[in-house]
Amino acid sequence: MRSTQRLDGRWESRRAGPEVRHPQSSLKPNEADGHSMPVNLGGTAENSFVPVNGNEWSFFVIAKEATAMFHIQPAVKPSLAEAVSLTVLIVLLISVSIIGFEAVPHLPILAAILLLIGYGLLKKVTWNTLQEGMTEGSGAGMGAVFLFFFIGMLISSWMMSGTIPSLINAGFLLITPSYFYAITFTVTAIIGISIGSSLTTVATVGVALLSMSGVLGLEPAITAGAIVSGAFFGDKMSPLSDTTNLASSIVGVDLFAHIRNMMWTTVPAFGLSFIIFAILSPAAGDAKLDTIQSFREALMETGLVHWVSFLPLALLVALTLMKVPALLTLAASTASAVLIGCLLKPYSAAKVFAILFDGFKSETGVEAVDSLLTRGGISSMFFTITLVILALTMGGLLFKLGIVQTLLAQVEQSLRSAGSVIGASALTAISINVLIGEQYLSILLTGQAFQGQFKKLGLASKNLSRVMEDAGTVVNPLVPWSVCGIFIAGVLGVPVADYFGFAFFCLFSPLLTVLFSLSGKTLTYTEK
After folding, report:
1. What are phi and psi of 305, to 5 degrees?
2. Torsion, CA 418, CA 419, CA 425, CA 429, rounded to 10
3. Which of 342, 442, 458, 469 has the maximal Cβ count within 10 Å?
4. Which H or E run includes 526?
């Protein structure tokens, strides 16, 4: 979840048929992909021929009742040269704007939309047809918009109730000079999950831990690698993270089904990373822990660290295990947090509404702690919501103009196995991160481009959402010119090239997702 100053304020589906246990899958049969997004994902995949200019053009297998993006019928059939040229132009436009001019993603995406509109008009596609593509594309994200509203309220309510401050305090209790790298990795992971923001974790707790490593005389590159690994573990697995919500909602998977499925690759990646960091940690003697202690004291002074503050988290976990739809789970946890917050401190009704909309404002006087706790609110989601709508609008035009179909038709013959399609989608997510440097676009475009191929092979959509996170979310900080890479290097003062080889979790995640797909393990299939 993005929360830098520059980018700050940075779906119950019908199941696609009952899931069956594949001979090579270790998952249980009938494990639902999800049930909390109002997008129709039902039906069985079958060959579909789309008439174009009076002819039948077989692009790829399209589900009878697919998501909004995949039932958009192309109005024209562009040549391969046209499709490739437009794609390259869009990539250059977005990447140069973001990397070269440090523009927020919205403006170059809007420019790309105008470029596609211009191409469509040159191909004599009517304005109404183009507008239809834009509307259908953006409409696919309406379920996510509602979910993001509740995420914003959940974060601010968890601040009110002290849930997040209590979790952060628990993480700080783990800090000792011994096994410092492993503990740094664990603490940043806990705090990353607690607040759902990798960059906020890096910019606050990460800075404190890096300073502490200096006192201990430890390697800053390894410490930075541990901080980045833990922060992006939290970003990937937290139900509060907008990247986690985006990856699940874009392909119509229940949020908590998505998180559970990611554990197949995330737990091994975490375990391997922890072991390596523990081995790399030298024996350290006593050292001053003043920085961490000042954090803890400031947290305790808020009066928000209390055992009762863990109840909203316990309710969230309980409802998740009961497979209650994500939106209802978030709403119930938010309501319980507001109640506890009002019991701990007599907030007026007007103040509660203000916090839920504008976010919680911390006023401890310790700048780093206030930066960590001043979060949440519906308004904090506006950046993400507008970016999602614009990106999906662009995606709708790419499908309406037949560009995505033309490109996929060229590689379709080689994508005949689970390993090949997962490998291709992972490579696409990584490539978008490298070429454009944008985490959100890596998730959005990969999900839009490969959902049809996953359905064709009978792979459940949660396999794709996992790949989008394993090769999209956690790869961005490894790219020196990416949004995350530039921010982290600036805040920690450690170049990406220095910590790259020590960000073990971010390196293991895409590798494991491809290796598991080649073995056929951990994959869930839908009944054809």
Report:
1. -85, 110
2. 140
3. 469
4. strand 525-526
The DSSP line for 281-331 is PPP------HHHHHHHHHHHHTT---GGGGHHHHHHHHHHHTT--HHHHHH
pTM of the entire predicted model: 0.68
- The span from the CA of 239 to the CA of 330, in Å, is 9
Rounded Cα distance between 185 and 189, Å, is 6
Q: Find the length of the chain.
A: 528
pLDDT digits (tens), the chain, 528 positions: 444 433 333 333 333 333 333 333 333 333 333 333 333 323 333 333 333 333 332 222 222 223 345 567 889 999 999 999 998 999 889 888 887 888 888 899 899 999 999 999 999 999 999 999 999 888 766 776 787 788 889 889 988 998 888 887 887 777 777 788 999 999 899 988 987 878 878 876 787 788 677 756 789 999 999 999 999 999 899 888 888 988 998 888 888 999 999 999 999 999 999 999 999 987 655 455 666 677 778 888 888 888 899 999 889 878 877 878 778 888 999 999 999 999 988 899 999 999 999 999 988 777 777 877 888 899 988 887 887 788 878 888 988 999 888 887 777 667 778 888 898 999 989 988 887 777 887 898 888 888 888 888 889 999 999 999 999 999 999 988 777 887 888 778 888 889 999 999 999 999 999 898 888 778 888 765
